[in-house]
Automatic annotation (TrEMBL):
The keyword Oxidoreductase applies. The chain crosses the membrane at residues 268-287, 307-329. It is a multi-pass membrane protein. It comes from Plecoglossus altivelis (Ayu sweetfish). Residues 1-20 are annotated as: Disordered. The gene is fads2. GO terms for molecular function: oxidoreductase activity, acting on paired donors, with oxidation of a pair of donors resulting in the reduction of molecular oxygen to two molecules of water. Residues 21-98 form the Cytochrome b5 heme-binding domain. Keywords: Fatty acid biosynthesis, Fatty acid metabolism, Lipid biosynthesis, Lipid metabolism, Membrane, Oxidoreductase, Transmembrane, Transmembrane helix. GO terms for biological process: fatty acid biosynthetic process. Residues 1-11 have a biased composition (Basic and acidic residues). Its main location: membrane. Pathway: Lipid metabolism; polyunsaturated fatty acid biosynthesis. This is Fatty acid desaturase 2. It is found in: Membrane.
Amino acid sequence: MGLGKHLKDPDPTSNGKQGVGNVFTWEEIQRHTNKNDQWIVIDRKVYNISNWTKRHPGGIRVISHYAGEDATEAFTAFHPDPTFVRKFLKPLLIGVLAECEPCHDHDKSAAIVQDFRNLREHAEKEGLFQAKPLFFCLHLGHILLLEALALLLLWTYGTSWTSTVLCIIMLTTAQSQAGWLQHDFGHLSVFKKSKWNHLLHNFTIGHIKGASAGWWNHRHFQHHAKPNVILKDPDINMIHIFVLGNTQPVEYGRKKLKFFPYNHQHKYFFFVGPPLVIPVFFHIQILKTMVSHRLWEDIAWWLSFQIRYFLCFVPFYGFFGSILLISAVRFLESHWFVWVTQMSHIPKDIEYENHQEWLAMQLSSTCNIEQSAFNDWFSGHLNFQIEHHLFPTMPRHNFHRIAPRVRALCKKHGLSYEVKTLGQGFADVVRSLKKSGDLWLDAYLHK
Protein backbone atom coordinates (compact mmCIF):
# COMPACT_ATOMS: atom_id res chain seq x y z
CA MET A 1 0.00 0.00 0.00
CA GLY A 2 1.04 3.62 -0.32
CA LEU A 3 1.28 6.37 2.26
CA GLY A 4 -2.47 6.63 2.63
CA LYS A 5 -4.53 4.55 5.02
CA HIS A 6 -5.37 0.97 4.17
CA LEU A 7 -8.61 0.51 2.29
CA LYS A 8 -11.65 0.02 4.45
CA ASP A 9 -15.33 -0.19 3.56
CA PRO A 10 -16.37 2.86 1.56
CA ASP A 11 -17.56 5.86 3.51
CA PRO A 12 -21.28 6.24 2.79
CA THR A 13 -20.92 10.01 3.04
CA SER A 14 -20.32 11.51 -0.36
CA ASN A 15 -18.24 14.62 -1.03
CA GLY A 16 -21.09 15.99 -3.10
CA LYS A 17 -24.52 15.14 -4.35
CA GLN A 18 -24.56 11.47 -5.38
CA GLY A 19 -26.04 9.98 -8.48
CA VAL A 20 -25.72 10.27 -12.22
CA GLY A 21 -28.46 12.86 -12.54
CA ASN A 22 -25.96 15.71 -12.46
CA VAL A 23 -24.43 16.54 -15.83
CA PHE A 24 -21.15 18.45 -16.17
CA THR A 25 -19.04 19.96 -18.92
CA TRP A 26 -15.26 19.88 -19.06
CA GLU A 27 -15.25 23.61 -18.40
CA GLU A 28 -16.99 23.00 -15.07
CA ILE A 29 -14.80 20.05 -14.14
CA GLN A 30 -11.58 21.93 -14.85
CA ARG A 31 -12.50 24.55 -12.27
CA HIS A 32 -12.00 21.94 -9.53
CA THR A 33 -8.24 21.54 -9.40
CA ASN A 34 -7.39 23.22 -6.09
CA LYS A 35 -5.87 21.39 -3.15
CA ASN A 36 -9.17 21.17 -1.24
CA ASP A 37 -11.49 20.97 -4.25
CA GLN A 38 -10.68 18.27 -6.79
CA TRP A 39 -12.78 16.42 -9.35
CA ILE A 40 -11.69 13.70 -11.76
CA VAL A 41 -13.39 11.79 -14.58
CA ILE A 42 -13.22 8.01 -15.05
CA ASP A 43 -15.20 6.36 -17.86
CA ARG A 44 -17.26 9.56 -18.28
CA LYS A 45 -18.31 9.53 -14.61
CA VAL A 46 -17.42 12.54 -12.48
CA TYR A 47 -16.03 12.01 -8.97
CA ASN A 48 -15.39 14.52 -6.20
CA ILE A 49 -12.16 13.25 -4.62
CA SER A 50 -11.54 16.28 -2.39
CA ASN A 51 -11.85 14.37 0.88
CA TRP A 52 -10.63 11.04 -0.51
CA THR A 53 -7.12 12.15 -1.49
CA LYS A 54 -5.78 11.82 2.06
CA ARG A 55 -7.14 8.27 2.29
CA HIS A 56 -5.88 7.22 -1.12
CA PRO A 57 -3.53 4.23 -0.62
CA GLY A 58 -1.18 5.49 -3.34
CA GLY A 59 -0.75 8.83 -1.61
CA ILE A 60 -2.26 12.28 -2.03
CA ARG A 61 -0.16 13.48 -4.91
CA VAL A 62 -0.57 10.73 -7.47
CA ILE A 63 -4.38 11.08 -7.56
CA SER A 64 -4.25 14.87 -7.25
CA HIS A 65 -2.11 15.09 -10.38
CA TYR A 66 -5.25 14.21 -12.36
CA ALA A 67 -7.57 16.78 -10.80
CA GLY A 68 -9.75 18.33 -13.51
CA GLU A 69 -8.76 15.66 -16.03
CA ASP A 70 -9.86 12.35 -17.48
CA ALA A 71 -8.06 9.76 -15.34
CA THR A 72 -9.44 6.66 -17.06
CA GLU A 73 -6.11 5.42 -18.46
CA ALA A 74 -4.24 6.13 -15.22
CA PHE A 75 -6.95 4.46 -13.12
CA THR A 76 -6.88 1.36 -15.30
CA ALA A 77 -3.08 1.30 -15.46
CA PHE A 78 -2.49 1.38 -11.70
CA HIS A 79 -5.23 -0.95 -10.42
CA PRO A 80 -4.86 -4.66 -11.24
CA ASP A 81 -8.48 -5.19 -10.12
CA PRO A 82 -10.49 -2.09 -11.18
CA THR A 83 -13.78 -3.79 -10.27
CA PHE A 84 -12.73 -4.06 -6.63
CA VAL A 85 -11.55 -0.45 -6.50
CA ARG A 86 -14.72 0.95 -8.08
CA LYS A 87 -16.73 0.26 -4.93
CA PHE A 88 -14.60 2.87 -3.19
CA LEU A 89 -15.39 5.34 -5.96
CA LYS A 90 -19.16 4.88 -5.72
CA PRO A 91 -19.67 7.21 -2.72
CA LEU A 92 -17.63 9.88 -4.53
CA LEU A 93 -19.79 9.87 -7.67
CA ILE A 94 -21.43 13.25 -8.29
CA GLY A 95 -22.49 13.05 -11.93
CA VAL A 96 -21.54 12.32 -15.51
CA LEU A 97 -20.12 14.09 -18.52
CA ALA A 98 -22.66 15.78 -20.76
CA GLU A 99 -23.39 13.72 -23.89
CA CYS A 100 -22.04 16.50 -26.08
CA GLU A 101 -18.66 16.36 -24.30
CA PRO A 102 -15.83 14.13 -25.56
CA CYS A 103 -14.56 11.41 -23.24
CA HIS A 104 -11.17 13.12 -23.10
CA ASP A 105 -10.14 16.51 -21.72
CA HIS A 106 -8.34 19.39 -23.41
CA ASP A 107 -7.25 18.83 -27.02
CA LYS A 108 -6.44 15.13 -26.81
CA SER A 109 -6.95 13.00 -29.91
CA ALA A 110 -10.08 10.86 -29.70
CA ALA A 111 -8.56 8.41 -32.20
CA ILE A 112 -5.38 7.88 -30.15
CA VAL A 113 -7.36 7.51 -26.92
CA GLN A 114 -9.74 4.95 -28.42
CA ASP A 115 -7.07 2.97 -30.27
CA PHE A 116 -5.00 2.64 -27.12
CA ARG A 117 -8.02 1.50 -25.11
CA ASN A 118 -8.72 -1.11 -27.81
CA LEU A 119 -5.12 -2.31 -27.63
CA ARG A 120 -5.32 -2.74 -23.88
CA GLU A 121 -8.65 -4.56 -24.17
CA HIS A 122 -7.16 -7.04 -26.66
CA ALA A 123 -4.13 -7.57 -24.41
CA GLU A 124 -6.39 -8.31 -21.45
CA LYS A 125 -8.41 -10.84 -23.48
CA GLU A 126 -5.21 -12.60 -24.53
CA GLY A 127 -4.06 -12.92 -20.93
CA LEU A 128 -1.02 -10.67 -21.27
CA PHE A 129 -1.69 -9.22 -17.82
CA GLN A 130 -1.53 -12.67 -16.19
CA ALA A 131 1.73 -13.18 -14.34
CA LYS A 132 3.61 -16.46 -14.10
CA PRO A 133 4.44 -16.95 -10.40
CA LEU A 134 7.23 -19.41 -11.23
CA PHE A 135 9.04 -16.74 -13.27
CA PHE A 136 9.22 -14.37 -10.31
CA CYS A 137 9.94 -17.11 -7.76
CA LEU A 138 12.95 -18.19 -9.84
CA HIS A 139 14.20 -14.60 -9.88
CA LEU A 140 13.81 -14.41 -6.12
CA GLY A 141 15.62 -17.75 -5.83
CA HIS A 142 18.65 -16.56 -7.81
CA ILE A 143 18.89 -13.45 -5.61
CA LEU A 144 18.86 -15.53 -2.41
CA LEU A 145 21.37 -17.92 -3.97
CA LEU A 146 23.80 -15.06 -4.71
CA GLU A 147 23.64 -13.88 -1.09
CA ALA A 148 24.12 -17.44 0.17
CA LEU A 149 27.13 -17.95 -2.14
CA ALA A 150 28.71 -14.73 -0.85
CA LEU A 151 28.50 -16.04 2.71
CA LEU A 152 29.73 -19.50 1.69
CA LEU A 153 32.72 -17.89 -0.04
CA LEU A 154 33.69 -16.08 3.16
CA TRP A 155 33.21 -19.20 5.28
CA THR A 156 35.39 -21.22 2.91
CA TYR A 157 38.18 -18.84 1.91
CA GLY A 158 38.12 -16.18 4.60
CA THR A 159 38.30 -12.41 4.09
CA SER A 160 41.16 -12.15 1.62
CA TRP A 161 41.03 -9.36 -0.95
CA THR A 162 39.91 -11.81 -3.63
CA SER A 163 37.09 -13.17 -1.46
CA THR A 164 36.02 -9.68 -0.46
CA VAL A 165 35.91 -8.42 -4.04
CA LEU A 166 33.90 -11.46 -5.18
CA CYS A 167 31.58 -11.05 -2.18
CA ILE A 168 30.96 -7.39 -3.09
CA ILE A 169 30.21 -8.32 -6.71
CA MET A 170 27.72 -11.02 -5.68
CA LEU A 171 26.01 -8.80 -3.10
CA THR A 172 25.80 -5.89 -5.56
CA THR A 173 24.26 -8.14 -8.18
CA ALA A 174 21.78 -9.52 -5.64
CA GLN A 175 20.81 -6.03 -4.46
CA SER A 176 20.36 -4.70 -7.99
CA GLN A 177 18.29 -7.68 -9.10
CA ALA A 178 16.23 -7.40 -5.90
CA GLY A 179 15.54 -3.81 -6.91
CA TRP A 180 14.04 -4.92 -10.21
CA LEU A 181 12.09 -7.72 -8.48
CA GLN A 182 10.56 -5.49 -5.80
CA HIS A 183 9.59 -3.20 -8.66
CA ASP A 184 7.65 -6.14 -10.14
CA PHE A 185 5.93 -6.99 -6.86
CA GLY A 186 5.08 -3.31 -6.34
CA HIS A 187 3.25 -3.13 -9.67
CA LEU A 188 1.80 -6.59 -10.21
CA SER A 189 -0.61 -9.09 -8.76
CA VAL A 190 1.72 -12.06 -9.15
CA PHE A 191 -0.48 -14.18 -6.89
CA LYS A 192 -4.27 -14.19 -6.71
CA LYS A 193 -4.34 -13.29 -3.02
CA SER A 194 -3.23 -9.71 -2.47
CA LYS A 195 -1.76 -10.52 0.95
CA TRP A 196 0.92 -12.66 -0.72
CA ASN A 197 1.84 -9.85 -3.13
CA HIS A 198 1.99 -7.41 -0.23
CA LEU A 199 4.17 -9.80 1.78
CA LEU A 200 6.55 -10.50 -1.11
CA HIS A 201 6.93 -6.82 -1.91
CA ASN A 202 7.75 -5.97 1.69
CA PHE A 203 10.08 -8.97 2.01
CA THR A 204 12.00 -8.05 -1.14
CA ILE A 205 12.28 -4.29 -0.65
CA GLY A 206 12.41 -4.35 3.14
CA HIS A 207 14.21 -7.51 4.24
CA ILE A 208 16.48 -8.05 1.22
CA LYS A 209 17.18 -4.41 0.29
CA GLY A 210 16.61 -2.48 3.52
CA ALA A 211 14.26 0.07 1.95
CA SER A 212 10.61 1.10 2.38
CA ALA A 213 7.63 -0.10 0.34
CA GLY A 214 5.58 2.94 1.34
CA TRP A 215 8.32 5.35 0.25
CA TRP A 216 8.70 3.50 -3.05
CA ASN A 217 4.94 3.47 -3.79
CA HIS A 218 4.53 7.14 -3.01
CA ARG A 219 7.44 8.15 -5.23
CA HIS A 220 7.25 5.66 -8.06
CA PHE A 221 3.55 5.88 -8.90
CA GLN A 222 3.84 9.65 -9.27
CA HIS A 223 6.59 9.01 -11.79
CA HIS A 224 4.32 6.69 -13.77
CA ALA A 225 1.31 9.00 -13.53
CA LYS A 226 3.12 12.04 -14.95
CA PRO A 227 6.57 10.98 -16.21
CA ASN A 228 9.01 13.82 -16.85
CA VAL A 229 6.38 16.43 -15.98
CA ILE A 230 7.97 19.24 -13.98
CA LEU A 231 6.52 19.61 -10.45
CA LYS A 232 4.69 16.26 -10.75
CA ASP A 233 7.38 13.63 -11.35
CA PRO A 234 9.66 13.32 -8.27
CA ASP A 235 12.29 11.50 -10.35
CA ILE A 236 13.21 14.76 -12.09
CA ASN A 237 13.28 16.79 -8.88
CA MET A 238 17.05 17.20 -8.68
CA ILE A 239 16.96 19.62 -5.69
CA HIS A 240 18.84 22.27 -7.70
CA ILE A 241 21.82 19.98 -8.34
CA PHE A 242 20.98 19.48 -12.03
CA VAL A 243 18.78 21.27 -14.57
CA LEU A 244 17.02 18.99 -17.03
CA GLY A 245 15.30 19.26 -20.40
CA ASN A 246 14.91 22.41 -22.44
CA THR A 247 12.57 24.51 -20.27
CA GLN A 248 13.97 24.28 -16.74
CA PRO A 249 17.54 25.35 -17.68
CA VAL A 250 16.28 28.47 -19.46
CA GLU A 251 14.07 29.37 -16.47
CA TYR A 252 16.99 29.01 -14.05
CA GLY A 253 19.23 31.01 -16.36
CA ARG A 254 16.82 33.89 -16.78
CA LYS A 255 16.27 34.03 -13.01
CA LYS A 256 20.06 34.03 -12.52
CA LEU A 257 19.87 30.90 -10.39
CA LYS A 258 23.29 29.30 -10.00
CA PHE A 259 23.22 26.76 -7.22
CA PHE A 260 25.82 24.78 -9.19
CA PRO A 261 27.83 25.50 -12.36
CA TYR A 262 25.25 23.80 -14.55
CA ASN A 263 27.30 24.23 -17.72
CA HIS A 264 29.58 21.58 -16.16
CA GLN A 265 26.84 19.29 -14.90
CA HIS A 266 27.66 16.61 -17.49
CA LYS A 267 31.07 16.36 -15.77
CA TYR A 268 30.14 16.50 -12.07
CA PHE A 269 27.24 14.10 -12.75
CA PHE A 270 29.77 11.26 -12.56
CA PHE A 271 30.73 12.28 -9.00
CA VAL A 272 27.28 13.25 -7.69
CA GLY A 273 24.65 11.21 -9.55
CA PRO A 274 25.55 7.52 -9.93
CA PRO A 275 27.65 7.17 -6.75
CA LEU A 276 25.39 9.03 -4.30
CA VAL A 277 21.74 8.45 -5.26
CA ILE A 278 21.20 5.22 -3.29
CA PRO A 279 23.73 5.45 -0.43
CA VAL A 280 23.00 9.11 0.37
CA PHE A 281 19.88 10.66 -1.20
CA PHE A 282 17.59 7.62 -1.15
CA HIS A 283 18.80 6.50 2.27
CA ILE A 284 17.96 9.88 3.80
CA GLN A 285 14.57 10.00 2.04
CA ILE A 286 13.66 6.48 3.15
CA LEU A 287 14.43 7.10 6.82
CA LYS A 288 12.68 10.47 6.78
CA THR A 289 9.56 9.04 5.09
CA MET A 290 9.27 6.02 7.39
CA VAL A 291 9.57 8.14 10.53
CA SER A 292 7.48 11.15 9.46
CA HIS A 293 4.64 8.98 8.11
CA ARG A 294 4.89 6.42 10.91
CA LEU A 295 5.28 3.48 8.56
CA TRP A 296 5.75 0.96 11.36
CA GLU A 297 5.57 -2.09 9.11
CA ASP A 298 8.25 -0.68 6.83
CA ILE A 299 10.41 0.19 9.84
CA ALA A 300 10.11 -3.40 11.08
CA TRP A 301 11.18 -4.80 7.69
CA TRP A 302 14.06 -2.27 7.53
CA LEU A 303 15.24 -3.36 10.97
CA SER A 304 15.06 -7.01 9.92
CA PHE A 305 17.49 -6.22 7.08
CA GLN A 306 19.91 -4.46 9.43
CA ILE A 307 19.84 -7.31 11.94
CA ARG A 308 20.29 -10.00 9.30
CA TYR A 309 23.07 -8.17 7.54
CA PHE A 310 25.17 -7.46 10.63
CA LEU A 311 24.63 -10.95 12.08
CA CYS A 312 25.95 -12.41 8.81
CA PHE A 313 28.98 -10.16 8.24
CA VAL A 314 30.18 -8.86 11.61
CA PRO A 315 31.80 -12.26 12.39
CA PHE A 316 33.96 -11.81 9.28
CA TYR A 317 34.65 -8.07 9.11
CA GLY A 318 33.70 -6.66 12.48
CA PHE A 319 31.19 -3.84 12.91
CA PHE A 320 33.05 -1.06 11.08
CA GLY A 321 34.29 -3.44 8.41
CA SER A 322 30.69 -4.52 7.76
CA ILE A 323 29.70 -0.88 7.34
CA LEU A 324 32.48 -0.43 4.78
CA LEU A 325 31.31 -3.59 2.97
CA ILE A 326 27.68 -2.49 2.64
CA SER A 327 28.85 1.02 1.65
CA ALA A 328 30.85 -0.48 -1.22
CA VAL A 329 27.83 -2.53 -2.30
CA ARG A 330 25.53 0.52 -2.18
CA PHE A 331 28.08 2.56 -4.12
CA LEU A 332 28.20 0.04 -6.98
CA GLU A 333 24.46 -0.68 -6.88
CA SER A 334 23.77 3.04 -7.18
CA HIS A 335 25.74 3.23 -10.43
CA TRP A 336 23.80 0.26 -11.82
CA PHE A 337 20.46 1.75 -10.78
CA VAL A 338 21.08 5.28 -12.06
CA TRP A 339 22.34 4.35 -15.52
CA VAL A 340 19.55 1.81 -16.13
CA THR A 341 16.72 4.04 -14.95
CA GLN A 342 17.89 7.35 -16.38
CA MET A 343 18.96 6.23 -19.86
CA SER A 344 15.29 5.96 -20.83
CA HIS A 345 14.10 9.23 -19.27
CA ILE A 346 16.63 12.06 -18.88
CA PRO A 347 17.33 12.33 -22.65
CA LYS A 348 13.58 12.58 -23.38
CA ASP A 349 11.18 15.54 -23.12
CA ILE A 350 11.04 17.15 -19.67
CA GLU A 351 8.36 19.83 -19.65
CA TYR A 352 5.47 21.29 -17.67
CA GLU A 353 2.05 19.65 -17.92
CA ASN A 354 0.74 19.78 -21.48
CA HIS A 355 -2.19 17.33 -21.18
CA GLN A 356 -1.18 14.71 -23.72
CA GLU A 357 -2.95 11.43 -24.31
CA TRP A 358 -1.69 8.58 -22.09
CA LEU A 359 0.03 6.97 -25.11
CA ALA A 360 1.67 10.19 -26.32
CA MET A 361 2.72 11.26 -22.81
CA GLN A 362 4.49 7.98 -22.08
CA LEU A 363 6.19 7.91 -25.49
CA SER A 364 7.48 11.47 -25.20
CA SER A 365 9.13 10.67 -21.85
CA THR A 366 10.45 7.13 -22.40
CA CYS A 367 12.44 5.07 -24.87
CA ASN A 368 13.47 1.44 -25.19
CA ILE A 369 16.84 -0.26 -25.18
CA GLU A 370 17.48 -3.07 -27.63
CA GLN A 371 16.36 -6.50 -26.50
CA SER A 372 18.95 -9.16 -25.69
CA ALA A 373 19.31 -11.80 -23.00
CA PHE A 374 21.86 -9.62 -21.20
CA ASN A 375 19.88 -6.38 -21.51
CA ASP A 376 16.73 -8.11 -20.24
CA TRP A 377 18.55 -9.43 -17.16
CA PHE A 378 20.73 -6.36 -16.57
CA SER A 379 17.78 -3.96 -16.59
CA GLY A 380 15.10 -6.23 -15.13
CA HIS A 381 13.33 -5.96 -18.51
CA LEU A 382 13.17 -2.17 -18.09
CA ASN A 383 14.78 -2.01 -21.50
CA PHE A 384 11.09 -2.31 -22.51
CA GLN A 385 10.47 1.01 -20.79
CA ILE A 386 7.76 2.10 -23.23
CA GLU A 387 5.65 -1.02 -22.70
CA HIS A 388 6.20 -0.89 -18.95
CA HIS A 389 5.00 2.71 -18.77
CA LEU A 390 1.98 2.06 -20.94
CA PHE A 391 1.01 -1.07 -19.00
CA PRO A 392 2.52 -0.89 -15.48
CA THR A 393 0.61 -3.97 -14.28
CA MET A 394 1.70 -6.15 -17.19
CA PRO A 395 4.31 -8.75 -16.10
CA ARG A 396 7.67 -8.14 -17.69
CA HIS A 397 7.82 -11.57 -19.30
CA ASN A 398 5.04 -10.40 -21.69
CA PHE A 399 6.57 -7.09 -22.79
CA HIS A 400 8.13 -8.63 -25.90
CA ARG A 401 4.70 -9.90 -26.95
CA ILE A 402 2.93 -6.54 -26.76
CA ALA A 403 5.85 -4.48 -28.14
CA PRO A 404 5.17 -5.08 -31.90
CA ARG A 405 1.55 -3.95 -31.46
CA VAL A 406 2.60 -0.82 -29.59
CA ARG A 407 5.08 -0.05 -32.35
CA ALA A 408 2.36 -0.53 -35.01
CA LEU A 409 -0.01 1.77 -33.10
CA CYS A 410 2.68 4.44 -32.89
CA LYS A 411 3.33 4.16 -36.62
CA LYS A 412 -0.39 4.54 -37.34
CA HIS A 413 -0.58 7.82 -35.42
CA GLY A 414 2.84 9.18 -36.36
CA LEU A 415 4.25 8.87 -32.83
CA SER A 416 7.94 8.25 -32.19
CA TYR A 417 8.82 4.78 -30.85
CA GLU A 418 12.51 5.13 -30.00
CA VAL A 419 14.87 2.17 -29.51
CA LYS A 420 18.56 2.59 -28.64
CA THR A 421 21.56 0.42 -27.97
CA LEU A 422 22.70 0.15 -24.35
CA GLY A 423 25.80 2.21 -25.09
CA GLN A 424 23.79 4.89 -26.87
CA GLY A 425 21.39 5.06 -23.93
CA PHE A 426 24.27 5.68 -21.50
CA ALA A 427 25.89 8.26 -23.78
CA ASP A 428 22.63 10.15 -24.30
CA VAL A 429 22.36 10.76 -20.55
CA VAL A 430 25.61 12.72 -20.65
CA ARG A 431 24.73 14.45 -23.94
CA SER A 432 21.38 15.62 -22.60
CA LEU A 433 22.98 16.98 -19.42
CA LYS A 434 25.50 18.91 -21.50
CA LYS A 435 22.78 20.29 -23.77
CA SER A 436 20.69 21.44 -20.78
CA GLY A 437 23.77 22.96 -19.16
CA ASP A 438 24.55 24.92 -22.33
CA LEU A 439 20.96 26.21 -22.46
CA TRP A 440 21.28 27.38 -18.87
CA LEU A 441 24.56 29.16 -19.52
CA ASP A 442 23.21 30.93 -22.60
CA ALA A 443 20.14 32.14 -20.70
CA TYR A 444 22.24 33.08 -17.66
CA LEU A 445 24.62 35.24 -19.68
CA HIS A 446 21.90 36.79 -21.81
CA LYS A 447 20.87 40.24 -20.59
